[in-house]
Amino acid sequence: MTSAKTSAIDQTSQPAQPGHPPGWSVPETFPCLKPLSEQEQSLALKTALTHLGHAAWLEDAFKGLGSGMTLACLRERIATAVLNATFEQQEAILKTQMATPLPAALAQSAERYVQQFGWPHLVALAGPRRAGMTHETLASQLERRLAHPVDHERRVSVQEVLRTLEIAFDPLLNTEPVVGDRLWDWHEDLTRHSDQEGALTVTFMTAAHQQVALDLADRMSQCGCDEVHIDDLGNVVGVYHGQDPEAPRLLTGSHYDTVRNGGRYDGRLGILLPLACIDVMHQQGIRPARGIEVIGFSEEEGQRFAATFLASGAVTGKFNYDWLDQTDANGISMREAIEAAGHNIEGIASIKRDPARYRGFVEVHIEQGPVLNNKGLSLGVVTSINGGVRFKGQIKGLAGHAGTTPMIQRQDAACAAARIILLAQQCALAHPGSVATVGMLQVPNGSINVIPGLCEFSLDVRAPTDAQRDTVIAAIVKGIREIEASESVCVILNETMRVAAAPSDPAMQQHWDNAVRSLGLQPFELPSGAGHDAMKLATVMPQAMLFVRGENNGISHNPLESTTSHDMELATAAMLHLIQSV
Ligand SMILES: [Zn+2]
């Protein structure tokens, strides 16, 4: 931060809001959390209305904003108002915008865009780090957006307008997200290491994987961790001591391996963000009451070996030694891979933690879904990691001539499959929070003129509690029996995987709620549809997770996975609050 900015903040900053633990200066560290002066607030509102086209309904939405409003609150207020507006209101905003200037080579596509959607092509050109966008990124984004259905593209365009506004506020109010930018750069820096050229792929114990571990260990030291080590499974562990060495530590972390051609935040955010917290505390000479232990788990995704969560599994004492004999695609066993990296198999047993020495486990993770993005919220408090059951299904009908067999005499396996897919959709919809997916569907050896005699499908059902999930499954199974009778087919369901739900510990979840509330934001709760390291830790200690909004409609396991400096900044502030109050 430049000295000019520091003095500007000093003039306007006020005491931290009630609810912030004493001892550290929130507004100076996170300028978007400083209460805006009346003058700043009216400047911000004027800027917002200018950007959004002075609609009367927007002016109404901003009425009654109290004094002491922070930029973080204001941003969220604007985003939720715009995202909850009617399609007509949103399109009115879009039509008042000037088209984003694009390189000449893209002019034709941009013209096609206006004709297709009726509003100009809009991009928050500064990008998630406010460092601009390459021509290549712009071109591929435009192509992608031209393929969007209109409702989807309207939402994307509105998000771009909101993002442009979010960026415009910072120079006006001296609110650049310094901590968020730092985190952004740390993530970027780690992408140097990959198993694959031109894509981010980091799988267990490859050269790139070992490099990431070394970088993380360095980062931990630089941030002020008092103890740093890499264990015999490649987990990177950093400890920042608290005031009371006897107090059970807060455990946190996530994984640093990736899927093939994955995103840079999945997992890594949950390692680097706690380090950003430690960095802030270290710089300000603050020691929390209890120590904090950050683990960069070496493996979660199960890419090189079929052993998902092997790292967090070892921390809970459930490492499966049979896994060591598994081989990768090149015939290298896990044992060989671990030893080639200089680790000791005998050391794995000592990775197990004694739960009594920990207050609990918290994990910050990018949402990997569209919920927060569509609601205009930066953060979400996780209520539960959904429990899942997977099935492989087979439908046996009777193959027959597509021309000669009357419709009422058919035993069409594909028709039954179609009904089962819709049945699963209805059953999940009837139990909010649950999801059901048929992701694989085949007519083996099918032919254009043959009634399908056999159909194979997969079924994946998840819900926030095991009981709810089993209720959904029971409803699906009951419906399948009816479909069997009416379609004259036989359906066989084989369960292939069952994972228990991991509801958040209510007290720990409350700490996240309070942390979000301390930022002046209304906590929003949602279940996690994806599995996380936290569900392993949940078997031995209380756990609760915080989600950070993903850009690009929350896409994940994809290079387009992204978040912004602004959202990471808020998540860091929330976690600092949790660390000091838990
Ligand atoms: Zn992950």
From TrEMBL:
The keyword Manganese applies. Residues 387-482 form the Peptidase M20 dimerisation domain. Residues 86-162 form the Oxo-4-hydroxy-4-carboxy-5-ureidoimidazoline decarboxylase domain. GO terms for molecular function: hydrolase activity, acting on carbon-nitrogen (but not peptide) bonds, in linear amidines; metal ion binding. SUPFAM superfamilies: Bacterial exopeptidase dimerisation domain, UraD-Like, Zn-dependent exopeptidases. Keywords: Hydrolase, Manganese, Metal-binding, Purine metabolism. CDD domains: M20_bAS (cd03884). GO terms for biological process: purine nucleobase metabolic process. Its cofactor is Mn(2+). It comes from the Bacteria. Residues 1-16 have a biased composition (Polar residues). InterPro entries: Amidase_Cbmase (IPR010158), Bact_exopeptidase_dim_dom (IPR036264), OHCU_decarboxylase (IPR018020), OHCU_decarboxylase_sf (IPR036778), Peptidase_M20 (IPR002933), Peptidase_M20_dimer (IPR011650). Residues 1-27 are annotated as: Disordered. NCBIfam families: hydantase. Homodimer. Belongs to the peptidase M20 family. This is Allantoate amidohydrolase. It comes from Orrella marina. The lineage of its organism: Bacteria, Pseudomonadati, Pseudomonadota, Betaproteobacteria, Burkholderiales.
